[in-house]
Amino acid sequence: MVFTNLTGDMLVAAGLISYLGAFTMTFRNDLVAGWVELCAEQNIPRNQTFSLNQALGDPVKIREWLIAGLPNDSFSIDNGGVRQ
């Protein structure tokens, strides 16, 4: 497994968890896109598109949540992981 983009992805994940939990998905996506762009401007390694689910998600737990009835959208899955 390559950890090249870990620095920028964890930076964006920390900001998302710390500051954006109470906001709508549209607002979150706009700010996250801006943060990813700022990382690019500062040459911080990161993925071109950020997903909290891919950065911090546990696929087994997410599958359990979906089986238990959690809607299969990124907003619900992101919120489920934060409340864990």
Q: Structural class given helices, strands, pairing? A: mainly alpha
The beta-strand count equals 0
Cα-to-Cα separation, first versus last residue: 25 Å
Domain count, please report it.
1
- How is the biggest beta sheet arranged? none
Order of helices and strands: HHHHH
Helicity range = 55-70%
The fraction of residues in strands falls at under 5%
Q: Globular, elongated, flat, extended or rod-shaped: what is the shape?
A: globular
Mean pLDDT: 86
Number of helices: 5
Structural overview:
- The protein is 64% helix and 0% strand.
- Helix 1 packs antiparallel against helix 2.
- The chain has one domain.
- By secondary structure, the chain is mostly helical.
- It is built from five helices and no strands.
In short:
This protein is an all-alpha fold and 84 residues long. The protein has five helices and no strands. The model has no long low-confidence stretch (mean pLDDT 86).
Looking at this protein, list some descriptive labels:
mainly alpha, globular, 5 helices, 64% helix, 84 residues
Give the helices and strands, then pairings.
Layout: H1 6-19, H2 25-41, H3 52-56, H4 59-67, H5 74-82
Helix pairs in contact: 1-2
